[in-house]
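Lab notebook, design round three. We kept the backbone fixed and only want residue identities now. Task for the bench partner: fill in a sequence for the structure below.
Input structure tokens:
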């Protein structure tokens, strides 16, 4: 899989300077990180809605869109796939492949807590250009939100 993602990343890099009138990737780069983040969030929501509705084929399609938009955002931010793989390997060494780092140092064993990012290192404010929903979702990382089923809601893609 990492080879496919690396190929996608290289294709995104190659397309970023193309004509925005003919290249979706170039258009995203032209519009900037705020638009890229919004598109990424939209695709993530579409994956969630399709998963909740049990639409496996749509989850696959929307996941491909999600990975594309994630890769565009990575390229814009100067993040390479190998940077992400390194972080995944670091986490695997600490917690195992299927675990995510805890949101709070309170839940971590003392050995891991010393490696955690201190709360004061988190930004106090997010850029105003981020969509309001994204700002709310990232403003307080220690707060867990309820998951609500989105039954009966039809999803219309806006591109």
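Proposed sequence:
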């Amino acid at each position: 899989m990492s080879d496919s993602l690396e190929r996608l990343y290289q294709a995104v890099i190659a397309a970023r300077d193309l004509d925005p009138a003919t290249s979706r990737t170039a258009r995203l780069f032209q519009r900037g990180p705020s638009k890229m983040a919004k598109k990424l969030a939209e695709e993530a929501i579409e994956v969630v809605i399709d998963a909740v509705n049990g639409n496996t084929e749509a989850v696959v399609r929307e996941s491909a869109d999600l990975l594309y938009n994630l890769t565009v955002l990575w390229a814009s931010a100067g993040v390479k796939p190998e940077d992400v793989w390194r972080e995944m390997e670091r986490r695997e060494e600490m917690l195992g492949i299927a675990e995510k780092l805890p949101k709070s140092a309170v839940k971590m064993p003392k050995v891991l807590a010393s490696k955690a990012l201190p709360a004061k290192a988190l930004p106090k404010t997010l850029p105003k250009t981020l969509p309001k929903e994204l700002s709310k979702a990232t403003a307080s990382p220690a707060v867990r939100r309820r998951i609500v089923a989105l039954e009966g809601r039809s999803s219309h893609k806006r591109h």
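Keep this in mind before ordering anything: The mean pLDDT is 76.
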